[in-house]
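Carbohydrate ABC transporter membrane protein 2 (CUT1 family): structure tokens wanted.
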Amino acid sequence: MSAVGRKKITGGSVFVYGFLSLAAFFAIFPFYWMLVMATKPSAAYNSIPPALVPGGLLVENFQKVMDKIPFFQAMLNTLIICLAATLVVLFISSLAGYAFAKFSFPGKNVFFVAILLTMVIPPQLGLIPQYLLVAKADLLDTLSGAMILFFLNPLGIFLMRQYISQSVPDELMEAAKLDGCSNFKIYRSIILPIVLPAFATLGIIVFTAVWGEFLWQFTVLRNPDSYTIQVALATLTATSNIDFGMVMSGVFWSTVPLIIVFLLFNRLFISSITEGSVK
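Answer:
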């Protein structure tokens, strides 16, 4: 092997790889321990030393979950809410980001700053007025009422505005206008292909945030048939005698769709980079 082909190992690189390996271990270990607990009886939760090897009760514990809650119905409800909220957020955020990045109109900066300021307001402060508005619209205990709160995403508007302003050349838009393209056709034919990598990033953020949401869904959903997976799993701990193996099994299986969605969006992100943006 030539000297060019050999990579010199330095103390700095050993430290960096060691630190990254340690960080990866601490990030992955909670998920591994959750899997171990999902295969163990409830008593193993408080065992000393803690159990680190998976057992053989994964199917039995999951069967207990399905006996206690409508697991697959809750997963379907959650999937519907997450997909609808993600698609709406991507559409609204990309349109708003396009407007803030490429158009000039009175009060543009004021509106943009006002949208960003909503990010610093704790969501708990708006819980009561939002509940009253949803109740007035007769959307309590419905999937529409559970998802409507997530349709406007200030972070998504900010990300799209920054991405479009940096990635879409003004000359490309001017050329499209000379060809007779309307603003919406420019958005559909030019903006959308370019922002696909940003769509992948924002889609992961929104999907996982909505999937993990509990407070709002617990507030507006009361019928077990309309429960999301987070609300349904919370009912497993509503008794004094908690079966931790059952709870961990439900939590473990509820994270599987998140992993699948991440892998799908990750592939979209990579393919969007390699295929090129401007078409």
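The chain is about 70% helix and 0% strand. The CA atoms of residues 23 and 159 lie 27 Å apart.

Cheers.
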